[in-house]
Amino acid sequence: MRYLVTTFRTPEFDPGVIDAHYAFLDDLRQQGKLDLAGPFTDKTGGAYLIQAANKDEAEALAFRDPVHTSGSSVVTVYEWDAK
């Protein structure tokens, strides 16, 4: 299954977390779990598309994202039936 992960910056957003966030995404990509990723052009956050067995696994992956663990962004996971 594919899951769309959205990240929206909070008022406590720390720009210093960006490098760790990109390293996290690179790790997902190397594991074959990341399909697409990118920031929103309005700088409010971004989104990425991951593959997981179920929503619990997808949330476990996404909630390890440094933008989430640092409180810099609100991370939400959606099951996505993209065609």
Automatic annotation (TrEMBL):
Residues 3-80 form the YCII-related domain. This is YCII-related domain-containing protein. InterPro entries: Dimeric_a/b-barrel (IPR011008), YCII (IPR005545). Pfam families: YCII. It comes from the Bacteria. SUPFAM superfamilies: Dimeric alpha+beta barrel. It comes from Marinobacter halodurans. Belongs to the YciI family.
